[in-house]
Specification:
Elements (H helix, E strand, L loop, with lengths): L1 E6 L2 E6 L2 E2 L3 H13 L5 H10 L5 E7 L2 E15 L7 E13 L8 H15 L4 E4 L4 H4 L5 E12 L9 E5 L5 H15 L2 E3 L3 H13 L3 E7 L12 H7 E8 L5 E2 L3 E2 L4 H12 L6 E7 L5 E10 L2 H5 L3 E2 L3 E8 L8 E8 L2 E7 L6 E4 H10 L10 E2 L4 E2 L5
Parallel strand pairs: 6-7, 10-23, 18-21
Antiparallel strand pairs: 1-2, 3-4, 4-5, 5-6, 5-10, 7-16, 8-15, 8-16, 9-11, 11-12, 12-13, 12-14, 17-22, 18-19, 19-20
Helix pairs in contact: 2-6, 5-7
Length: about 400
């Protein structure tokens, strides 16, 4: 079955959106290179090694030519509102939304997004997220910004102050310690974030290396009275204070600072010593775990399965809420939901009819529960997320 679009005297026939398999996925690189010419060959080699193995690619063909694509990269996400044990869930990061120039403005992206989001809904994935080139592109499809990244510039200070921290480049042998560090730092400060396991850091090391960068570790110096139990791998874990991935190609860019917010000044002093060593310079910083000069809306998201999304959250007390939900893009989400909540979790079920305590859009529901933007009519006792931390690039 194909769709027909007429433009003046010309008629184009497009195939239906479909999940690409086998060699079809390899065709995506050619389209990527054509549309995103700024990406280096080394970065695309990294992407081939790590992403095409387990991601999903959707495409539309005109004849034998791939003319439009959307890629979904898998991520495990932690959703822990109010510091509860919460849930680890499968999600997808939407990337490489691209259409050949001569086929644009014909609704191909809309069709690809709808097909891919509907497939996620059928798999009961609760939400999806992306880093948009422009908010205006995704806003009509129900995506909304829910994470603002702390941004600023690391600048030289004269004289360069001392720090109690020492910096070194991380190695593969540090990955177990990095997993533990990320778990400790994220769980203590944030409530909606990426699960960082061994696979995550193995992939991150290769991604950073593809752009001439690396991952900087900041550690406390070993104390003189550290006993034998502190000299091995466990001691190294306990001394780690921050993980700082950075791009190395000019201009160098710090793409994240993962640390405790209260260690801000020591972290910045250590970074100045490492990157500047007394030279006058400055570097852009993105994704800091503490406040800097500004913030930038960076990650948009939306609900894919409303029932699964509601069941990620709990409440301070036992309560029941009937929600009338409208989703103008994924219409299967629209309807009436009975939501039973308590301190241990929640359950949601679809109702054929009944009285709604709250009427809202899918966008309003997402913003309320994913980042704490509570609209009128939403109850106060529901445990919602307030502190997302998502600095993913691909």
């Amino acid at each position: 079955m194909s769709d027909r679009h007429d433009a003046g005297k010309e008629a184009y026939e497009f195939g239906s959106p479909r999940l690409l398999c086998g060699e079809e996925k390899r065709e995506c690189r050619s389209l990527w290179e054509k549309i995103f010419a700024e990406d280096s060959a080394s970065f695309l080699d990294y992407y081939d090694r790590w992403k095409y193995t387990d991601n999903e690619c959707y495409g539309i063909y005109a004849g034998d030519t791939l003319i439009s694509m959307v890629q979904l990269n898998p991520y495990r996400m932690e959703v822990r509102p109010w510091g509860t044990a919460g849930h680890t869930v499968e999600s997808r990061y939407i990337i490489a939304v691209a259409t050949r120039e001569e086929y644009r403005h014909r609704g191909l992206m809309r069709r690809l997004l709808h097909r891919s989001l509907e497939d996620m809904r059928k798999k009961n994935m609760p939400f999806v997220f992306l880093m948009p080139a422009s908010e205006a592109i995704y806003y009509p499809f129900g995506f909304r910004f829910f994470y603002e990244m702390n941004t600023g510039r690391l600048k030289t200070e004269e004289p360069v102050p001392c720090s109690r921290l020492k910096a070194r480049l991380a190695e593969a042998s540090d990955i177990p310690a990095l997993v533990r560090l990320a778990e400790k730092l994220q769980d203590g400060q944030f409530d909606f974030y990426t699960k960082r396991d061994n696979h995550y850091f193995e992939m991150l090391f290769d991604e950073l290396a593809s752009e001439g960068g690396g991952l900087l570790l900041l550690e406390r110096a070993a104390a003189e009275d550290d006993g034998p139990e502190q000299t091995g791998n466990i001691g190294r874990m306990d001394r780690m204070m921050a993980a700082v991935p950075f791009w190395g190609r000019e201009p160098v860019e710090i793409r994240e600072i993962l640390c405790r917010a209260e260690d801000r000044e020591d972290i910045l002093r250590a970074l100045r010593r490492w990157f500047f060593n007394g030279q006058e310079a400055e570097l852009p910083v993105s994704g800091a775990a503490f406040s800097m000069e500004g913030t930038k809306p960076i990650i948009m998201g939306r609900i894919t399965d409303a029932k699964a999304f509601l069941e990620l959250f709990s409440a301070e007390k036992v309560m029941e809420l009937c929600i009338s939900l409208t989703d103008s893009f994924l219409e299967e989400n629209s309807g009436l939901y009975r939501w039973k909540l308590g301190p241990e979790g929640s359950r949601a079920e679809r109702l054929e009819d009944g009285h709604a305590d709250v009427s809202c859009t899918a966008e309003e529901l997402f913003l309320w529960l994913a980042c704490g933007k509570r609209a009128a009519g939403f109850p106060e006792d529901v445990r919602m997320c307030r502190r997302p931390f998502i600095n993913e690039i691909v």
